[in-house]
Amino acid sequence: MTQDRSERRAGQTRRSRRRAPKPLTLLAVVLGLSIGGEVLLRLEPQLCPRQEQLKIAETTGGFDDFVDDPLLGARARGDVDQVEHTLDYSYRVRLDSLGFANAEPWPDSVEVAVLGNSLLFGPGVGLEGQFTTLMERQLGPGSVLNLGLPGGSPIQELRIYSKYAAPRHPRIVIATLWVASDVDNAVQFSHWLSEGSPPGFTAYRMDYPTTHGSFTFLLRVRDLLSRSYLLRAAYYYARSLVRPDSLTGRVRFENGQEVWLSVREERRLARGAQRPGLDVADFIAPLLELRARADSAGTRFVVALLPSKEEVYGASTDPDVLNTVREVRTALDAADLPVVDVYPPFRSEGLGRPLFYRRDIHFNQDGNALVARTLLRWIARHAPLETPRDTRTAREAGAPR
Predict the structure, then answer these.
(1) Taking Cα atoms as reference points, which of 274, 296, 291, 288 lies closest to residue 334?
(2) More confident: 31 or 337
(3) Domain map of the chain by residue range?
(4) Phi and psi at residue 222, in whole multiples of 5°?
(5) Which terminus in the chain has less CB density within 10 A, N or C?
(6) Pairing mode of beta strands 248-252, 112-116
(7) CATH homologous superfamily of domain 66-190+221-397?
(8) Most confident of the following: 68-82, 214-228, 260-274
(9) Measured distance CA(299)–CA(167) in Å, rounded
(10) Residue 232 Rama label (left phi>0; alpha psi -120 to 50; beta)
(11) pLDDT-derived band of residue 87, with 50, 70 and 90 as boundaries?
(12) pLDDT at 164 over 60
C-alpha cells in the first residue's frame, strides 16, 4: 500500500515537471513580450498610461536636425522644408539657408530683430503662425527678422545679434527670455565654452545632466534604461498608483480642452535661477552687453519675458514655480534693463482657453497670437515705427545677401 502511494506521488511529480515551463522558455516568452511591447509603444505611444504620455511626448517627433556651429554650438540645418509630427500636432517646418525661421531672401535692413530660442521656431504653427510672422503682417513685409535658436540663451543671443542682426541695422532688438529653459541652456553653453568647445554640441546638451551631475555613473545607467518606452511606462504607471499627483497636473477648460503640466518641471522652477557655476548676474550679463552694442548703433533694445505653461497654470496651486522668473526680474531691474513682461496677459487671457499645447511645451496658435499682440503694443507705445524705412529685399535691390 505504501509502495503504491509512493509510486503515484513519483508519477505525479514527473508529470508536473513535464508540464512546468523550462527557464529558457520563460525567458523567451518574457523577452518576446518585452520586445513586442517596446515596438507597440513606439508605434502607438497613445496606448501608454496618461501620466506617461507627457514624458514620451518630449522625445517623440519635432524638429531635431542640427549642425555644429563654432559660434553658437549648434544651429538648425538650413534650407529645410518638411513636415514634422508629434502627439499634439503636425506642421510644416520651413527654414532659410542659415537655419532660421524666415522666408528668403533676407531684407537688407529690418525694423525689428527678434532673438530667442525654440519658441521662435513656431512648433505646431509653422512659419505662417509664429508670432514674429504675425508681427510682420502688422509692421510690413520684410520688417521683422526671426533669429531664434533652439536651445539658445543670452550668450548665444549676443553672438547672433553681432553676426546676423547688427549688419541689417534694426531699429528695435527684442531679446526674448524663456527662463524655464534659458537658465539651464546658459549653464550648458557656458560649460561647453569653458571645456574648449568640443565638437558635437547637440549631443553635449542632451547628455549634460548625466555627464555633469552628481552620481554620474548611476545617472548614465538611468539614462540608458529611460530610453526604453516600456520601462518608462511601467515606472511612471507604478508611480502614478502610489502618488497620483507626482507626475503631471491637468488643467481643464470649459470647452473640454486640456493642458498637461509637469510636476517635475514645477519643482525645478521652484528652486530658482541660481545654478552651480552660473548665478543670475552671469545669466543677464550678455544682455547688458547686447544693450550697450544696440545703444551704440542707435537701436532700441528691450527684453521680453515669455512664460512657460507651468508658470501660467501651475502658479495658482504652487506659487513657488515663479521663483525663477522672480529672481531674473529682480536682476533685470537692478541692471536697469527695459522689459516687456508677457506673463500678465498670459495669466489673464489663459484662464478661459489654453495658450499651450496639451503635451508639448510650446505656444499654440492662440499663444503665438497673444505674444505678437503684446510685443506690438509695446512697440506702438515705446518705440513707434512712424516712418518705415525702405525694406526692399536684397534680390529686389540687386545686392548680394
Answers:
(1) 288
(2) 337
(3) 66-190+221-397
(4) -60, -40
(5) N
(6) unpaired
(7) SGNH hydrolase (3.40.50.1110)
(8) 68-82
(9) 12
(10) alpha
(11) confident
(12) yes
Task: Find the helix or strand (DSSP H, E) in which 83 lies.
Answer: strand 80-85
Where does residue 79 fall: left (phi above 0), alpha (psi -120 to 50 degrees), or beta otherwise?
A: left
Per-position b or e across 58-96, b if 16+ CB within 10 A of its CB: eebbbbeebeebeebbbbbeeebeeebebbbbebebbbb
For residue range 104-162, list pLDDT tens digits in order. Answer: 999 999 999 999 999 999 999 999 999 999 999 999 999 999 999 999 999 999 999 99
- Mean pLDDT computed over 226-237: 66
d(CA 185, CA 183): 5
Query: 266 in the Ramachandran plot: left (φ > 0), alpha (ψ -120 to 50) or beta?
Result: alpha
- Quick: pLDDT tens for 52-80: 444 544 444 467 889 999 999 999 999 99
What pLDDT, on a 0 to 100 scale, did the predictor assign at position 47? 63
Residues of the chain above pLDDT 90, percent: 58
Q: Where are the alpha helices (DSSP H) in 165-314?
A: 179-194, 201-211, 216-226, 229-242, 263-270, 280-296, 309-313
Among 311, 303, 304, residue whose Cα is nearest residue 356: 311
User: Cβ(101)–Cβ(148) under 8 Å?
Assistant: yes
340-360 as b/e, with b when 16 or more CB fall inside 10 Å?
bbbbebbbebbeeebbbbbbb
3-state secondary structure of 311: helix
H-type alpha helices, 297-400 = 309-313, 323-334, 343-349, 365-382, 394-397
Helix (H) or strand (E) holding 84: strand 80-85
Instruction: Average the pLDDT over 25-29 and give the result.
Output: 76
- Distance of alpha carbon 237 from alpha carbon 195, whole angstroms: 39
* Longest CA–CA separation in the chain, Å: 114
To which residue does cell 508639448 refer? 360
Q: Which residue has the higher pLDDT, 16 or 257?
A: 257
